[in-house]
Specification:
With 224 residues, this protein is α/β, with parallel strands linked by helices. Helices cover 41% and strands 23% of the residues. It is built from eight helices and twelve strands. Strands 2-1-3-4-5 form a five-stranded parallel beta sheet, with helices on both faces. A four-stranded antiparallel beta sheet has the order 6-7-8-9, covered by helices on one side. Helix 4 links the parallel strand 4 and strand 5. Helix 6 packs across helix 7. The chain starts with a strand and ends with a strand. The relative contact order is 0.12.
Length: 224
């Protein structure tokens, strides 16, 4: 699936469970345990959906949401609330939430709602990414070279997707780390370089992933 999810909840045991479930579904998950950190991560990282608890210390979910919307952050937000009063749900939606879920909830329902928000947000984006002989179908998650299927791991797929979305644009190592792996997980120091090598090996001469020394990487798209 490759969705990038930000969890903002002070219940660390719940975050661990949700992270494990979402990662098993192919998601990249970042987490914050208070409102201020949630705002910082939401503004500094590229995420597809934010799962935001209402009851947070110091800065509650509604304040976080207002800060994000006032700053122009349009990322879909799913509010988690332990209160199911209509007034609480209405106030959250009016503050800019896209959906809400009342605790306790089933993980499958949370996942379904996240997927629905992601689909809505991606309307208008191309489902087929093309560069030279390489095509990526983001609906079926198939990658082909001249019509022949290429087998990629989930991480290789997310990295290639990022490159195909940014042809000719320099992507720094830090930007790749945050968008492919997420900020708050431990990865090997050479993870970016290693996975660039894997992609180059699997794509062969069909695409050129150029190394910009000391800066990052760039997908050089062949002329039509």
């Amino acid at each position: 699936m490759g969705m990038r999810i930000l969890l903002v909840d002070d219940d660390q045991s719940l975050v661990r469970v949700l992270r494990q479930g979402l990662v098993s579904e192919g998601c990249v998950v970042s987490a914050a345990h208070d409102g201020a950190e949630g705002v910082r991560l939401a503004m500094s990282t590229d995420v597809d959906v934010i799962v935001l608890d209402v009851m947070l210390p110091e800065m509650d979910g509604h304040e976080v949401l207002k800060s994000l919307r006032d700053a122009g952050v349009a990322t879909p937000v799913l509010l988690l609330t332990a209160r199911d009063a209509v007034s609480d749900r209405v106030s959250g939606l009016e503050a800019g939430a896209d959906d809400y879920l009342t605790k306790p909830f089933a993980f499958d329902e949370l996942l379904a709602r996240i997927r629905a928000l992601h689909r809505r947000a991606r309307r208008g984006e191309p489902e087929l990414l093309v560069a030279g002989a390489v095509t990526m179908d983001r609906t079926s998650h198939e990658v082909r070279i001249d019509g022949t299927s290429v087998d990629l791991t989930p991480t290789e797929y997310r990295l290639l997707e990022l490159l195909l979305q940014n042809p000719g644009r320099l992507l720094t190592r830090q930007a790749i780390l945050s968008r492919v792996w997420g900020y708050d997980i431990d990865v090997a120091p050479n993870a970016v370089e290693q996975y660039i090598h894997y992609l180059r090996t699997k794509l062969g001469q069909t695409l050129t992933i150029a190394t910009v020394r000391g800066a990052g990487y760039r997908l050089d798209v062949p002329a039509a």
